[in-house]
TrEMBL record:
Stated name of the protein: Uncharacterized protein
Source species: Lentzea kristufekii
Length: 56
């Protein structure tokens, strides 16, 4: 793991396995074992994701 930045998952395509984060990042879920939840403390949170999450 190079980074432990936590992104907020906006949506996940179960058929393709692609995760879209609140900051617009698209990640293949097969490439990461990270559990991306904003409620987990102790991790660096992506500021763009947190801003987008609060703006909802
Ligand atoms: Zn993010």
């Amino acid at each position: 793991m190079a980074r432990d930045v936590m992104h907020v998952v906006a949506s996940k395509s179960w058929w393709s396995g692609t995760i879209t984060t609140a900051c617009g990042l698209k990640v293949d879920s097969s490439e990461t074992n990270s559990v991306w939840f904003p409620s987990l403390s102790g991790n660096i949170k992506c500021p763009a994701c947190m801003a987008a999450h609060k703006a909802r």
